[in-house]
Write a structure and sequence with these properties.
Layout (H helix, E strand, L loop, with lengths): L15 E9 L3 E2 L2 E7 L2 E8 L2 E10 L2 E10 L2 E12 L2 E8 L3 E9 L6
Antiparallel strand pairs: 1-2, 1-3, 1-9, 3-4, 4-5, 5-6, 6-7, 7-8, 8-9
Amino acid sequence: GPDSGVGAAEPAKVDGKWNVLLQLETITGHPVITLKQNGEKLTGTYEGRYGPSPLEGEIKENRIAFAVTFSAEGSKTTGVFQGTVDGASMNGSVEFEGAGNGTWSAVRAKPDPK
């Protein structure tokens, strides 16, 4: 519309559930993230081996970044994810406090059959 900023692309739509493949130096994980999108702001839930944890981040055009903090065996760990969204998939790099760096990819989960 006429009131959009000049050259500003809309953020990619990432609302919903995503199946993630997480590959760190010592760990491979298959967490599920559920994203709630409000413009460029993201909130949601990250469900991995330590149960559900809150997630927050942002998306600008097709660049996504989010952080999740969870309690792992009694100590809090933060994972910082950055990546690129391409339609129903996304991928990028991740840095986990205390667990090293790695890569991640995600695909949009199929809706539950009714």
